């Protein structure tokens, strides 16, 4: 049980794909991929106002006065990094853990789940004596290892981006976003906006998210099938190219030496045509692979958010994830039927050669020599 949380959350889920290290102040893009704030700053070129996701290539516009710092913080990932980081410290580095309170060399024996600090025995005594720490939950390292207190760590809670420091305890059904008290008065007034307490819509949002998990899974399956169809199309194109080259060789073999150059020219044109088709299919496959990456990561984020996120974390991410769902699950740009049509629209073997003048010449001269 002690390592259940660590096993459930993969290291990749908490790793920035730019620096390949554990997230530090993760920022979430419109495609719901997250990266360290500093990594994004280094990734962008000077003067750029749009972030092209390094994972799926989708664009995210930045606020003019905010830059990378103005992008949304991913508090869900940030809290997971803190929770799992503390668990790993307890499991693997107990003898080397410094006391977060006094910084001394005395062995750490407990952790305050309210302060998120590891404490030595002396600081535990102080923690339990001073009034300022009244109500703080202090547990031993052995109790922490059991997993009994998973989810009870004090989490960083997102605040309103419009009204500094205000916590978002309400949800505007009209706009589909969490809001603070000031927002209700200034930006989301009744009766134009249907604003309710966040606790009233928590289960409803989770239910909608669960339905989106199913939709994303179905879209992921369809995308994987489409990728397989593209692979088959590429193989078919290559087969057609080889067969066409074979037919050319058969004709050229009946001609005299000076006609072989004509035959080679014919093959080059066939190969160029097929390479162009193959290039188009590879481009389509790349687009589908990127879509698959977004589908997988969006589904993983959503499932993890459902199992580990708080209502405010779910509410904060809900609109953005739903937009991703709408974009990913209603993509009209490529279907298996379109790919298969592209594969079969040209006649195999001789049909691909009909538009090549060199081939017509070869046929004509072959007939002449036969006579």
Q: What topology, given as strand order, has the largest sheet?
A: 2-1-5
Run of helices and strands = HEEHEEEHEEHEHEEHEHHHHH
Q: How far from one another are the termini? A: 87 Å
What's the CATH architecture of the largest domain? Up-down Bundle
The overall pLDDT average reads 82
How would you classify the helix and strand content by structural class?
mainly alpha
Total of helices: 11
Percentage of residues in helical conformation: 40-55%
Largest sheet: 3 strands, antiparallel
How many distinct folded domains? 3
Tertiary shape? elongated
Unreliable stretches: 344-348
State the CATH class of the largest domain: Mainly Alpha
User: What is the total tally of β strands?
Assistant: 11
CATH topology of the largest domain, what is it called? Ferritin
**Radius of gyration, rounded?**
30 Å
Strand content: 5-15%
Keywords: Metal-binding, Zinc, Zinc-finger
Domain RING-type: 16-57
InterPro entries: TRIM45/56/19-like, Znf_B-box, Znf_C3HC4_RING-type, Znf_RING, Znf_RING/FYVE/PHD, Znf_RING_CS
GO molecular function: zinc ion binding
């Amino acid at each position: 049980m002690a390592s259940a949380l660590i096993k459930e959350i993969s290291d990749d889920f908490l790793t920035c794909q730019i620096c390949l290290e554990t997230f530090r102040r993760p920022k979430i893009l419109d495609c719901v991929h997250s990266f360290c704030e500093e990594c994004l700053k280094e990734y962008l070129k000077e003067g750029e106002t749009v972030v092209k996701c390094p994972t799926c290539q989708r664009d995210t516009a930045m606020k003019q006065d905010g830059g990378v710092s103005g992008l949304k913080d991913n508090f869900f990932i940030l809290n997971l990094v803190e929770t799992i980081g503390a668990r790993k410290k307890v499991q693997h580095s107990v003898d080397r853990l410094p006391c977060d309170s006094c910084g001394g060399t005395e062995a750490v024996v407990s952790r305050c789940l309210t302060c998120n600090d590891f404490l030595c025995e002396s600081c535990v005594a102080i923690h339990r004596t001073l009034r300022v720490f009244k109500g703080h939950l202090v547990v031993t390292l052995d109790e922490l290892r059991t997993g009994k207190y998973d989810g009870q760590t004090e989490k960083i809670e997102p605040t309103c981006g419009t009204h500094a420091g205000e916590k978002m305890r309400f949800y505007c059904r009209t706009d589909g976003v969490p809001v603070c008290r000031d927002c209700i008065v200034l930006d989301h007034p009744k009766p134009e906006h249907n604003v309710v307490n966040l606790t009233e819509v928590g289960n409803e949002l989770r239910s909608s998210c669960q339905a989106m998990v199913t939709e994303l899974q179905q879209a992921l399956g369809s995308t994987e099938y489409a990728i397989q169809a593209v692979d088959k199309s590429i193989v078919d194109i290559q087969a057609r190219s080889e067969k066409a080259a074979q037919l050319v060789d058969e004709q050229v073999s009946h001609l005299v030496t000076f006609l072989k150059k004509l035959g080679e020219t014919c093959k080059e044109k066939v190969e160029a045509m097929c390479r162009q088709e193959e290039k188009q299919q590879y481009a389509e496959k790349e687009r589908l692979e990127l879509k698959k990456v977004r589908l997988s990561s969006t589904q993983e984020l959503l499932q993890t958010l459902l199992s580990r996120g708080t209502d405010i974390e779910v509410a904060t991410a809900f609109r953005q994830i739903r937009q991703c769902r709408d974009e990913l699950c209603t993509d009209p740009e490529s279907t298996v039927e379109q790919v298969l049509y592209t594969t079969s629209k040209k006649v195999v073997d001789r049909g691909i050669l009909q538009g090549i003048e060199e081939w017509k010449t070869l046929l004509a001269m072959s007939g002449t020599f036969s006579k």
